[in-house]
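Researcher: Let's continue the batch. This sequence belongs to PadR family transcriptional regulator, and it's 206 residues. Same format as the previous ones, please.
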Amino acid sequence: MSVRNGLLTLLAQGPSYGYQLKAEFEKRTGDSWPVNVGQVYNTLDRLERDGLIQQTEVDGDGHVFYAITAAGAAAARSWLTDPVRRGTAVRDELAIKLALAVTLPDVDAEAIIHAQKVATLGSLQELTRSKIAGGDPDTADEFAWQLVVDALIFQAEAEVRWLEHSEARIRRLRERGVGIARPFGDPSRQSADESAIRIASTGGER
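Model: Same format as before. Here are the structure tokens for PadR family transcriptional regulator:
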């Protein structure tokens, strides 16, 4: 989710000014995504440039109010109704780190997994304590906040399962005597790559 779509959706509820939008955005997302006023006004400038909102009035305190346009309302509806696509362009730093670690001969991938699991379990405990200490779950603000906390809890639980799965796979490979680590510039791999290049450059002639 982008702050842009969040602000646009809030403006679909009625005209508002920058600081109001910042406060509403943070309140409705359970303070899980703090934004600064400068970011809000930069986003409003871009939305206005794109014809999705427009300035309407200035109140006695100098607040500039913004209202959504028809194009903006359509964009807000589209964002709300279209599924969130988690494409392959999203890079998972932890997965990439482990993928590299298991191929490096001088790195203990299991130690990395253990350290990550301890950290993730710690986060999971904090999230669970925070949820238990929450307020009345029947209020709108609390319910919105708990939705975000639940999502973070499920993500942490899934990460722990994936770490345990990866740890077990590494252990099985080691028990079978399979070595997956290789030095940088593995001669056997380099030889295979060079052969492929030679074949491609000669059209397959030997």
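Researcher: Any comment?
Model: The longest strand covers residues 53-58.
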